[in-house]
Amino acid sequence: MITEPLPVPSDAELYEQIAARVPSADVERVRDALSAHGIQLTSPLPARRQLVVHRLYCEGTKSDTDDNDGAFTVDMSLGPGPWAIASTLNDAGKSSLLWALSFALRGVGFDAFKRPETVGWFSYVRVDIEVAGVAASVRLTFDKPDRPSCRLLSADTLEHLTALTGSQETGAGVRVVATAEPDGVKELIDRFMLDRLGLRPLPLWAAEAGAPKDADGNRDSAEQVHGWASYFYAIALNAGNSTVLLGPTSYNQLPVKLMQLFLDVPYASELTQINTARKKDTQESNRVQRRAREDAQAREQQTVPLRQALRAAEEKVTALEAGQPDLTGLLADVDAAARRLAHEQAALQEAEEGHALAHKARLKDERAVRRAQQSNAARLLLGALDPESCPRCDHEIDDARRTAEERDHRCSICASPLPQVQDDPDVRAALLSRLEDRVNASRTAEDTARQAVETTGAACDNSRAAYDLVNARLSAARSDSWYSRLESARESVYQLRGALAVATGNGTGLPEVVGDYVTATTSSSETEDDSDDSDAILEAAAEVLSNVVADHSKALFADLNGEIVSIARDLGVANLTSVDVNLAGHLNARKTGAKHPFKAFSPTDRLRTRIAAIVGMIKVGRKRGIMSHPGLLLIDAPTAEELSHENARQCIKTLYETAADDPGIQIVITSIDDAVWEFFPEDRTVTGPDKRHLF
User: How far is the C-alpha of 685 from the C-alpha of 676, rounded, in Å?
Assistant: First the structure.
């Protein structure tokens, strides 16, 4: 029973719902933010995908076989509906032909069909197909095993293509539209199929192999883009020994995403894009922060020697400053010593001047005694003035005048004749006695003055010595290497601080560049606001689209569940009670009413359940008026491990009837089961002579 389809919101409605969840954004801002991540919401249109194989042509040379080496040519005409590549022998080339067909359709061979010993046999493969109504022919030329070059042909009609014989590439209405060397074959087929079938690459986020875990236990991840080669798993099914329901891997819920794709769940692709964009932004932010932390840690480790050297230099400066000479005290001592020396020098000068005067007075007194003893003139004038100079003009009375006074009896001052006097012995004796007393007094005064000179001279010498000593100490302190060592230590501190600033990005110039690289952020508040706004929009968009995708997926999966059970039972899966496909891609099967995980199915049942899932998707789509699945199934040996002949017969019958009853389905199987000859007509069976080797 098919439920009524849910209404699909328009893109305008979705933009409004997203904007309503982000107070700072309007509809235009939402459009811009999503567009910046390459996401554009568009109202979905009914899909119409169709892929039909009309011809498989192969050339090659068999080698190293037991009985039929040599060149071969295979030319198979196919079309919509059921087809069987059959023989009564194993190793007859059935899977190898399916592999050659898959190579042309996928751009790379399908491993489940690959037989390593036969890969090198093929030299040329031609597959004529109709893709969404467009006639095309894929031509592979194998110069090396498994590495063909490719030529893609197109034609006005399918008949123009099928009219070409063998490897012929020219004809009416036929043209070569693209070519590719071995490295570009997969890309060419991928691009052609996605474009013609209206499919978009499916970006998923997967942890990088071997990436270390961060503090939260998360590994760095990378975007993995799944294209046609992954979608092809809905055409060429996994082998029975695979536990993946659909697709090359179950990681990141790829099976359910493929089911949503081929059930045409609205906005499923856009939701995947949004989730991928969010994970990419989150990881990039985490990477930047982690790199900043790691860089900071690395810088911290690298700067340990610098910090240690800086501490040692600062300690050296401190020690030198603590041992700084007391220049203030030395200067005070020098000043005090200089003042004492100046005082003693003044005292010495005064004593010397006093001694000079005393000495001069003694000489004068002694000279007066001699004159008194030697001449009458002197005796005459003993009691008179005996000046050193003229009392009026201060002109010195020289020896010539004194000699004239003695010899010529003329006054040494005015040169006038001296009067004649009578020499009185008593007077003379009294005068001489007085003169002798004066000499003795002047001698005593001179001795006293000399002693004063000697005393003050000694004191002055002591003061000078004290001054020289403290001055020498000051000079020694000033000329000591302490200053140069202190300056050198301070210079080392400055240099190390600068080096540390550069290393930690805390300075200017180059450190600013380092800081920009480490933080990898912008200081613009506007940019930060835009980033926050964009994150909020992506989060809101993911929430809105998740609701839409979840609701439609559940509704479609509900219809699909019934189809899977019905078809799987027809294919021979015994005791299957129910399945409940969920949004995580789990089948949630029950057999005889009990839980039965998909991996617990036998290989044969896994393959048949897989077939049921694909056919079920095709039927659900057809009933809803869409052709979301291309309608082609390639199945290798669906009954290979079946032990029950009746079950095998039922499986072959169901596959034939499924494709025969629905003109939109083409199923190509390989088999050696006898039931093939029972249900597949001769014109639907490809086999070799005597139903043995196909080539």
Answer: 8
Sequence-ordered list of residues with C-beta below 8 angstroms from that of 504, at least 6 positions apart, any chain: 299, 303, 511
What's the confidence (pLDDT) of residue 70? 92
Residues 118 and 695 sit within 8 Å (Cβ to Cβ): no
What does each C-alpha distance from 595 to 574, 599, 616 come to in angstroms?
Answer: 14, 12, 21
For 412, the token pair is 């040494």
Residue 512: the pLDDT is 43
- Which residue's structure tokens are 């689209």? 545
| pLDDT given for residue 664 in this prediction | 84
Q: What is the mean pLDDT of each run of 10 residues along the chain (695 residues)?
A: 77 92 91 90 86 96 87 95 92 92 96 92 97 95 95 95 93 94 96 92 75 65 86 91 88 88 89 86 74 72 82 86 75 87 88 87 79 57 56 71 70 70 70 83 88 89 89 74 77 84 61 40 44 83 93 91 93 92 90 92 91 91 86 91 83 92 91 93 92 87
Contact 127, 104 (CB under 8 A): yes
Vertex 79 angle, CA 73 and 85, to 5°: 50
Helices (H) then strands (E): counts for the chain? 19, 15
Q: What is the pLDDT of residue 230?
A: 93
pLDDT of residue 383: 43
Sign of CA dihedral 222, 252, 539, 542: positive
Distance (Å, whole) CA 251 – CA 248: 9
pLDDT for res 660: 92
**Tokens standing for 452?**
């004063």
Report d(CA 492, CA 500) in Å as an integer.
Answer: 12
Q: What residues pair up with 76 in beta bridges, in sequence order? A: 56
Tokens at 183, concatenated: 């490295």
What one-letter code names the amino acid at 329? Answer: G
Give the separation between CA 429 and CA 423, rounded to whole angstroms.
Answer: 11
3-state secondary structure 210-260: CCCECCCCCECEEEEEECHHHHHHHCECCCCCCCCCCCCCCHHHHHHHHHH
Three state DSSP letters for 281-341: HHHHHHHHHHHHHHHHHHHHHHCHHHHHHHHHHHHHHHHHHHCCCCHHHHHHHHHHHHHHH
pLDDT given for residue 363 in this prediction: 83
CA separation for the pair 224, 202 (Å, rounded): 8
d(CA 258, CA 247): 7
Report the Cα 462 to chain-centroid distance in Å: 79
Q: How far apart are CA 375 and CA 428, in angstroms?
A: 11
Tell me the C-alpha distance between 192 and 107, whole Å.
Answer: 10
Q: 393 near 474, Cβ under 8 Å?
A: no
| 251 contacts 245 by C-beta, under 8 angstroms | no
Gap between the Cα atoms of 463 and 337, Å rounded: 7
Give which of 542, 568, 48, 520 is closest to 296, Cα–Cα: 520
For 408, other C-beta atoms within 10 Å of its C-beta total: 11
Q: Strand, coil or helix: what is 532?
A: helix
| pTM as predicted | 0.68
